[in-house]
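call fold(seq) -> tokens
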Amino acid sequence: MDAVRGHLDGLVLAVLAAGPAHGYGLIDLLRERSGGFFELPEGSVYPALHRLERSGLIESSWSAEEGRRRRVYALTARGRRAVDERRREWRSFSAAVNAIFGEGTR
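ret:
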């Protein structure tokens, strides 16, 4: 989905800010929290998770859930700072876009 390009890492960080999640659970949370708008394939989300882990923004560990081993991802302290910064950037950006596209403009 083109609308996600450039924002996926920030969206993943924002979801993980609420707590650790495994890959499939993260995909479900992105779909649920977006009201079904973000229906993302594994092929998009897992590379983002690996990229964020390599950059030190998230960490992973194995857990056994319902008899299955799953890799669980969580924010690091650096990741928490990054998600706060991305939220600030997004608010500024969206306010500027709203000023242009907002009501009363032609």
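Strands lie at 21-22, 58-65, 68-75.
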